[in-house]
């Protein structure tokens, strides 16, 4: 049985780590380089770094910041934001990223998933999907959740897998920042319908929420931000808690 992964997420805006609620009302959460190093030294299995305003501001991910973070960590490191070509990914991997996350660019040009998978391998390609449940249907949103689409979460996730994505990072916009728990019903459906790993994102508020998303949501990994950034949950304590619940985690 594969171990479950705990992944802190660093949402970056103007060079700082930020965190909001339902993708809004962002507040400062610290220096991303310092946070990355802290997490790498204190039990995180992986890191995700998302330049959340890169697409909206029509610019590339902050490659120099990626390089500085990569120099401080010794765990797998995923980078996303403003990625739209093979060349973009080449730069980020040279700066030290292990994987890349694409979102809006994949919806706008799905062939990008095929191109990246063919060039770098599916293990390098994470497709992030931000979705909001509206009238009992999950709709995909773009540009940091600002632009709704007609795409259904589950239909898009299946296409993403077919095109060569190695993982899906699903963020529930309804749950994001609420600390009310992950969207476990949607996660369980994704897990049942797909064969690639699913990373749960949006809603972590306490340790039981992580246990629930692994058991009920069948997630392969759980991503969180504020509960880690603001020292509400220590990753070592979380892993002890999960281990006591019979959930296999990396020690």
UniProtKB/TrEMBL annotation:
Uppermost EC category: lyase
Record keyword Lyase present: yes
A Pfam family annotated for this UniProt entry: His_biosynth
Residue ranges the record marks as coiled coil: none
Substrates-to-products reaction catalysed: 5-[(5-phospho-1-deoxy-D-ribulos-1-ylimino)methylamino]-1-(5-phospho-beta-D-ribosyl)imidazole-4-carboxamide + L-glutamine = D-erythro-1-(imidazol-4-yl)glycerol 3-phosphate + 5-amino-1-(5-phospho-beta-D-ribosyl)imidazole-4-carboxamide + L-glutamate + H(+)
Keywords per UniProt: Amino-acid biosynthesis, Cytoplasm, Histidine biosynthesis, Lyase
InterPro entries xref list: His_biosynth (IPR006062), HisF (IPR004651), IGPS_HisA/HisF (IPR050064)
Pathway, per record: Amino-acid biosynthesis; L-histidine biosynthesis; L-histidine from 5-phospho-alpha-D-ribose 1-diphosphate: step 5/9
Protein name: Imidazole glycerol phosphate synthase subunit HisF
Native organism: Mesonia aestuariivivens
């Amino acid at each position: 049985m594969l171990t479950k992964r705990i992944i802190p997420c660093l949402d970056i805006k103007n060079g700082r780590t930020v965190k909001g609620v339902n993708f809004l009302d962002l507040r400062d959460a610290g220096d991303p380089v310092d946070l990355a190093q802290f997490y790498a030294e204190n039990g995180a299995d992986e890191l995700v770094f998302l330049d959340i305003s890169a697409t909206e501001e029509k610019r590339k991910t902050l490659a120099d910041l990626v390089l500085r973070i990569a120099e401080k960590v010794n765990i797998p490191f995923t980078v996303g934001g403003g990625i739209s070509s093979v060349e973009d990914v080449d730069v980020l991997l040279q700066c030290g990223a292990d994987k890349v996350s694409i979102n809006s660019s994949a919806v706008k040009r799905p062939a990008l998933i095929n191109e990246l998978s063919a060039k770098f391998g599916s293990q390098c390609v994470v497709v992030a999907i931000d979705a909001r449940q509206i009238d009992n249907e999950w709709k995909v949103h773009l540009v940091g959740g600002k632009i709704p689409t007609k795409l259904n979460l589950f239909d898009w996730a299946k296409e993403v897998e077919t095109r060569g994505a190695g993982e899906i990072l699903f963020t529930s916009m309804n749950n994001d920042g609420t600390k009310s728990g992950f969207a476990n019903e949607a996660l369980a459906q994704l897990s049942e319908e797909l064969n690639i790993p699913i990373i749960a994102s949006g809603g972590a508020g306490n340790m039981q929420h992580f246990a629930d998303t692994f058991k009920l949501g069948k997630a392969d990994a759980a991503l969180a931000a504020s509960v880690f950034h603001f020292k509400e949950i220590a990753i070592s304590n979380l892993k002890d808690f999960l281990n006591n619940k019979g959930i296999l985690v990396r020690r």
